[in-house]
Amino acid sequence: MSGEMHIPLETAAELVASLGGADFPHKLWQWLHAQIPLCHLSAARFNQPAADAVVQSVDWLFSRSADGVQDSEPALLSYLEKHWRQDPLLSHITPLQDPQLVLIRHEDIAAQDYVDDVFRRHQISAECNLLGRAADGVYALALYRQRDQPPFALEELALLRRLVALLLPLLVQHARLTVSLRRSQLPSLPHLFDKRLATTGIRLSPREQAMCHCLLQGMSAQGAAVQLGVKESSCKTYIDRAFLKLGVKSKAQLYGWCLACV
After folding, report:
1. CA–CA separation, 134 vs 113, rounded Å?
2. H or E element at residue 221
3. What's the pTM value of the predicted model, to 2 decimals?
4. Alpha carbons within 13 A on the beta-carbon side of 56
5. Torsion sign over Cα 24, 29, 77, 192
6. What does the domain layout of the chain look like in residue ranges?
7. Helix (H) or strand (E) holding 162
8. Distance between CA atoms of residues 158 and 88, nearest Å
9. Checking phi first, is residue 47 left (phi over 0); if not, alpha (psi -120 to 50) or beta?
10. How far is the C-alpha of 126 from the C-alpha of 149, rounded, in Å?
């Protein structure tokens, strides 16, 4: 790889012409992957009214992979439903003012279920994020490498850092010209849970089922108690009963159980 990453005029014209269309993610992937070895890229918007305000939600924009397959639904659902709250990227996004490049490796993530569901399951070794703020939140273009690929080199990171000023405005404009695929347009984890529950013959009480929904949405027993209007000790009882009926022993196993129907 040369010391500079040039974008040919023809390629730049194709990218700009494809903004708002279905071809933009593919053309962006083709160009980036030709410059730097990648296994996957994903674009998202973190909805935040202003710097230092609370990030309210995440909208997935698009994904592309080396094999042409987009994000598997389980991985996408798991991130949009709960793992984004565990993402160490949030500590960079919340105060973000100027464009930034952030490298995250699986050892940087404290939440073990996030590591297992996203990084280990898909053999991801590193995630390089290009971040930029717009009026409607922070846009992130995440570039991934698998374990059988070399880690991001300092030279590559320096080149990507210089590309932030080019790529982020394109990403923002593309999002404004398209209808983002929001979380509400995907089947939620509670929906998948109910779907599988209906096929098993297992009977949960309304409280037990609601408790499982709360856990799948990333709530703690304390948060679920507030949500359901019951004592925290009662929530723990509902959890124990539901887990026993379902044959699971942890939140991670509950998550896997509901995704078994996907």
Report:
1. 31
2. helix 221-228
3. 0.67
4. 9
5. positive
6. 9-184, 187-259
7. helix 154-177
8. 21
9. beta
10. 10
SS3 at position 184 = helix
Q: Which two tokens stand for residue 30?
A: 């083709």
| CATH code matching the domain that covers 187-259, chosen among 1.10.10.10, 3.30.230.10, 3.40.1160.10, 2.40.400.10 | 1.10.10.10
- Strands 40-47 and 57-65 come out as antiparallel
Tokens 């942890």 sit on residue: 250
pLDDT digits (tens, 9 = 90+) for 81-120: 778 888 899 999 999 999 999 998 877 787 787 777 777 7
Contact (Cβ atoms closer than 8 angstroms) between residue 254 and residue 215:
yes
Residues facing residue 145 across a β-bridge: 126
- Residue 6: is it exposed, middle or buried by C-beta count within 10 angstroms (0-12/13-18/19+)? exposed
CA dist 262 to 37, 79, 185, 188, 224, Å? 30, 16, 16, 12, 26
Distance in angstroms (rounded) separating the CA atoms of residues 150 and 205:
50
Better pLDDT: 139 or 65: 139
Going by C-alpha positions, the residue among 63, 47, 145 that lies closest to residue 104 is 145
CATH topology classification for 9-184? Beta-Lactamase (3.30.450)
Distance CA 155, CA 2 (A): 9
Say if residues 31 and 144 touch (Cβ distance below 8 Å). Answer: no
The pair of structure tokens assigned to 227 is 């949500």
Give me the percent of the chain exceeding a pLDDT of 90.
26
